[in-house]
Amino acid sequence: MNWRKLRIFILTVLALALIPATRYYQIDVPLLHFLKGSRAIDPLTLHLAGEFVENNLGTEQGADGSVTVRMIAQQYLFVPHCILVPAGVPVHLRITSADAVHSLAFNGTDYNVKVLPGTISEAQLRFSNPGDFKTVCREFCGAGHYAMRSELKVVPREQFPVLRAGERGNCAAQ
Ligand code: CUA
Fold first, then answer.
1. 33: pLDDT confidence band, cut at 50, 70 and 90?
2. Residue 105 and residue 27 in one domain
C-alpha cells in the first residue's frame, strides 16, 4: 500500500468514526459490552426478546416479598408509564434505554439513575411512605426531554396486590 492509499484509508476511517450512528454501533456498543459484561443488552431488540419484552415490564414480586421493577427509557417516555410498588419494601430497579442517554429521577427523593443504551442500569430503592411521585428525566435527551415524565405510586404494603408467578404489577392493578 502506498502513502496515497494509506492516507485515503485513514481519512475514510476517521470520517466514519465521526458519524454518530456509525460510531455508536461500531465503537460504543462493543466497548459497553466489554466494560459491562453480563449487563450488556442490545437496544435494538429490546421489544423482541429477553428481559425487557413488554409483558415482563413493571413490578415483579419475589418469594421473599422484595420486588423487582423493570423499565425502558426512550425518547420521550418511560415504559411502563406508571409504576406501582409497596412501601417499606426493597425495590430492585432494572432499567435500560432504547435510544439516547436518559436519567431517571423520582421527584422528592434522592434517587437518580443514569440510563444508557446498550447496558442495564441497576439500583436498590426503598420508599418508606406511601405517596405519588413524579418520575422525571434529568439528562437532556432531545427536543422532548422536558416532557419526559411519568408516575410512581407507592402504596401501603397490604394494598399491594399479591402477584402470581409471571404476573407484573402496574398502576391499573391497584
Ligand atoms: Cu430522557 Cu431527558
1. low
2. no
Distance of CA 77 from the midpoint of ligand 1 (Å): 8
| Number of structural domains found in the chain | 2
Claim to verify: residue 31 and residue 103 sit in the same structural domain: no
Q: Answer whether residue 24 shows pLDDT above 70.
A: no
Over residues 105-133, the mean pLDDT reads 93
Q: Are residues 32 and 74 in the same domain?
A: no
Residue 58 falls in which region: left (phi positive, over 0), alpha (psi -120 to 50) or beta: left
Return the residue whose CA atom lies nearest to atom 1 of ligand 1. 102
Q: What domain range includes position 86? A: 44-173
pLDDT value at position 142?
A: 94
If you measure from the C-alpha of residue 84 to the centroid of ligand 1, how many angstroms do you get, rounded to a whole number? Answer: 21
Among 152, 149, 105, smallest CA distance to 133 is for 152
Residues 144 and 147: their CA atoms lie apart, in Å, by 5
CA–CA separation, 118 and 31 (whole Å)? 10
